[in-house]
Design goal:
A hairpin with a 2-residue loop joins strand 1 and strand 2. The protein has a five-stranded antiparallel sheet, with helices on one face. A three-stranded mixed sheet has the order 3-10-9. The chain is 20% helix and 32% strand. The protein has three helices and ten strands.
Length: 188
């Protein structure tokens, strides 16, 4: 790969990284990486109530309540396999509000401030792909982090930097290949 096409025109470079979230699968296929990355919609609700009736994050399964110091409470998140549909639904918002008020009944009187949704990049097996593209050695794919994107971004950045700089990788990159080998427990 010598350049990528952008709305502003081509951008040349020596090394390119595909980190396009839910759209990464299609981009990766263009350079020979066959990885199934599916968009999963996550709806979120933001409430306002002062004072906030709890101080710590409450998590139950995939859903959570996050209290903020400014009197807002974040309620998240749905997991919906609906393709590239990024929109809130009455059913999704209702489910999140019911979840929140069952855990913290005092939130029933909170002001509904905002709702939004996003698309998470889901990859079967749970591990992201962090790999060089076999048809274009100067392309690195770093995608499929799903709900762990924030937690895995530091180590992903280190591995991508090591790829770009031609250094040995911190972790065995086979764990994150397009073949999705599962890591073995470290013994020692």
């Amino acid at each position: 790969v010598i350049a990528v096409r952008t709305p502003a025109g081509p951008v040349a470079g020596e090394t390119f990284v595909i980190a396009g979230g839910a759209w990464s699968g299609e981009l990766a296929r263009q350079v020979g990486v066959d990885v199934a990355i599916e968009p999963v919609r996550g709806q979120i609700v933001l409430l306002e109530q002062t004072p906030v009736p709890f101080r710590y994050v409450i998590q139950s399964g995939a859903r959570y309540l996050v209290p903020r110091a400014d009197g807002r409470i974040l309620i998240g998140a749905t997991e919906e396999h609906v393709g590239f549909v990024k929109a809130n639904t009455a059913d999704g918002v209702r489910g999140l509000l019911e979840f929140a008020t069952q855990l913290v009944p005092g939130l029933a009187g909170a002001r509904l401030e905002q709702c939004w949704s996003g698309l998470r990049p889901y990859r079967a097996g749970g591990l992201p792909i962090i790999s060089r593209a076999p048809l274009a050695e100067n392309v690195i794919v770093a995608a499929g982090h799903f709900r762990a994107g924030l937690q895995l971004s530091p180590v992903t950045a280190v591995l991508v930097r090591q790829f770009v700089c031609g250094q040995p990788t911190l972790l065995p990159v086979e764990w994150f290949s397009s073949k999705s080998a599962k890591p073995q427990a470290c013994v020692g």
